[in-house]
Amino acid sequence: MIRILVADDHTVVREGIKQILAGQEDMVVEDEAGNGQEVLQKVTKKTYDLILLDISMPGRSGLEILEELKVIQPKLPVLILSMHPEEQYAVRTLRAGAAGYLTKASAPQELISAIQKVSKGGKYVTASLAEKLAFELDAGAERPRHERLSNREYQVMLMLASGQSVTEVAEELCLSAKTISTYRTRILEKMDMKKNAELTLYAVKNNLIL
Question: What are the C-alpha distances in Å from 118 to residues 53, 74, 77, 139?
């Protein structure tokens, strides 16, 4: 039996996942978590075979939680289930130690197949993601500018590029506006840009936002 911890800040998503997996004899949703801190607390108290983790949660991002999980429980498989398209986060999460990446638009059967594969020690990637990973391994390939950013900087960059204000980003990430302003300054420096409009144009051109 595959014991799963489902981490997502939306109750309706967690309930939907439980319904999808309810008919599976070889897997069970053992626990749920609504934020990253809950995930870390639960893995220190109980044993799971797999974590189904969302990227966008209040407070610390799923990427940060993933990196910490890989320190606490390096062999525990983490399958990312996110609303964000592959272009935005997939390569970063796999680099950080995720065993696979699925979008929430995926078919239920794909989620089941991914859980089964990952729980056995495999990796789950789509054909398009496999292509991106192959490109990543090409030493001669020129790295895009957003690859210079840390995971948190990248998250803030996408939010600013989507038109959110510093205050809005701060509220959503449970951080101070001053901290987000510092991130913004650092992001613009690393990206060789002067204003948010340039971030938006760049993100659209690189399919990082719709």
Answer: 13, 14, 7, 28
| pLDDT over 70 (residue 139) | no
pLDDT, tens digit, for every residue of 145-173?
Answer: 898 898 889 989 999 999 999 999 999 88
For the chain, what is the largest distance between any 2 Cα atoms, rounded to a whole number of angstroms?
Answer: 55
Q: CA-to-CA distance for 198 and 93, rounded, in angstroms?
A: 25
pLDDT value for 138: 63
Please name the fold of domain 145-205: Arc Repressor Mutant, subunit A (1.10.10)
Evaluate whether 53 touches 79 at the Cβ level (below 8 Å).
yes
For the 2-136 domain, the top CATH level (class) is alpha beta
Residue range(s) of every CATH 3.40.50.2300 domain in the chain: 2-136
